[in-house]
Specification:
Helix content is 5%, strand content 54%. It is built from one helix and 34 strands.
């Protein structure tokens, strides 16, 4: 470095005076200049804006190859982490179940895949975290008909927080045909409950509920058969060792009922109720349990034909957890066409919030739908969302509730694009908060499939489509 008057290590002359013998003073003078310059720069640069509700804190795409990868569910774990489960390398021959762990700051900690050595193809559908921080995953192995005569089997896996696989449990129904899970729940003792559709002997597709102990042993199986078409969709636990299942079940006369059942911790059936309106069709798509001041309640949401109209109406029904008897119900007929609820959440007062879709009378449009159903079965508000008009298509398929705010996830078609990732937040009083949409570079299928929320953030998981790598798993964290 040459002596240019800016380096106090050099004995530089300025105006005929040597600074070499006054180095401490020169250093102090230069330090003051640096601090002054830094202060002026800070004053000139605007401060970074604080995050506001709805801002994306981070977004992570997951891809293992140019084949399809997608997340189906997300769960929070202790230590500010989240787990996403789904499918990777999505072709029937080589697809695998995938589980990915992320830190709350978006850092990917690890990814694990699973394929059975005895069957081609695997996929993960549900994930939960037990009280000890271990991760429970439900999915399927094998190929769905008609690609395979035998079909699929349940698979349940347990992983440690470090990603080590602890055990694997498989379930193949009595007919050794197609069996696939639809929901999972874990109780305070570490027992995992998996419900799904399973082929019976002479009974077609049945409800199958299996309980897997903390150590991986199959504790019991309970099966329910209507006629030949029984498809369970959801399971909920009550904290007392009982599980509740709902779905759609065809009766002997061809009618379809929302068959809901209660099974004890020992696997004994307590009751089964077939909720049906008129001679039409009733679906149970989601279920929740809530104890409100000692009143033990079961809520189901879905759809019903034969009540208020000849079209499908969004249904929220409340049952007694003790007897299964229907206590209250509400049907939502939003636009004169079909309306259907896909998921619900219940607050501490017993008010329910259902999300789904509503169709115009001629089915030329479908809008994403949210409905509030109070504990007395009144419907103070419904809300529908369309992103473009008139040929709109939108749907909500997941919902979370935190601090009096709803977070609804799904997709909506936008101009010049396919279905786009969609997350909407509104207050429980129906006040607008924020909306987020995302479109991959391919502008094709981009869908939010699962969502969890807390004070520190909202985590949404699904998939996005890019031109370079096709369908990729996607997880986002939003400011609540």
């Amino acid at each position: 470095m040459t002596g240019d008057g800016n380096d106090p290590r050099q004995p530089t002359t300025k105006g005929g005076t040597m600074f070499a013998h006054h180095r401490p003073a020169a250093l102090l003078f230069l330090a003051l200049l640096v601090l002054l310059a830094a202060g002026l720069a800070a004053a000139a640069s605007p401060a970074a804006a604080a995050p506001t509700p709805g801002d994306t804190l981070w977004s992570q795409q997951f891809s293992m190859s140019s084949l399809g990868d997608a997340f189906q569910d997300v769960a929070r774990g202790p230590g500010d982490v989240v787990y996403c489960v789904g499918i990777t390398r999505a072709t029937e021959e080589v697809s695998a179940l995938v589980l990915v762990k992320y830190k709350a700051d978006g850092t990917k900690l690890w990814a694990r895949t699973y394929r059975s050595p005895m069957a081609a193809g695997a996929a993960g559908t549900e994930v939960e975290v037990d009280p000890w921080g271990d991760i429970l995953v439900a999915g399927s192995i094998g190929l769905a008909p008609t690609s395979s005569v035998k079909g699929r089997d349940f698979v349940v896996l347990k992983y440690s927080p470090s990603g080590g696989r602890i055990w694997v449990r498989k379930y193949d129904g009595p007919a050794n045909r197609d069996d696939f899970p639809t929901d999972l729940a874990v109780d305070s003792g570490g027992t995992t409950y998996v419900v799904g559709s399973s082929r019976g002997v002479g009974t077609g597709q049945d409800y199958a509920l299996i309980a897997v102990g903390r150590g991986g042993g199959l504790r019991w199986t309970y099966r329910y058969a209507g006629t030949k078409f029984d498809y369970p969709n959801a399971v909920a636990l009550d904290g007392q060792g009982n599980s509740y299942v709902t779905g759609s079940s065809r009766g002997a006369g061809g009618e379809i009922a929302a068959a809901t059942m209660k099974v004890t911790h020992a696997g004994t059936l307590m009751w089964v109720k077939r909720l049906q309106y008129g001679a039409g069709i009733t679906h149970g798509n989601d279920i929740a349990y809530k104890n409100v001041g000692g009143d033990r309640r079961v809520y189901i949401c879905g759809g019903a034909i034969g009540g208020m109209s000849t079209n499908m109406n969004l249904l929220v029904a409340r049952l007694s957890a003790t007897t299964g008897a229907k206590v209250k119900d509400a049907e939502v007929d939003r636009s004169g066409g079909d309306d259907l609820g896909h998921a619900l959440v219940v607050d501490s007062l017993g008010d329910a919030y259902a999300v789904g879709e509503t169709f115009s009378p001629l089915h030329t449009e479908s809008h994403a739908l949210v409905a509030r159903v109070n504990a007395d079965a009144s419907v103070p508000w419904t809300r529908e969302l369309n992103l473009i008009s008139p040929d709109n298509e939108a749907m909500f398929q997941c919902v979370a509730l935190s601090a009096g705010n709803l977070y609804c996830g799904g997709y909506g078609v936008t101009a010049g694009s396919g279905p786009d990732w969609l997350v909407l937040s509104i207050s429980t009083a129906n006040g607008d908060r924020w909306i987020s949409t995302s479109s991959g570079s391919a502008h094709q299928d981009d869908i939010c499939r699962a969502i969890v929320a807390g004070a520190d953030g909202v985590y949404a998981a699904g998939h996005i489509t890019r031109t370079a790598t096709g369908i990729d798993g996607l997880v986002k964290k939003y400011v609540p």
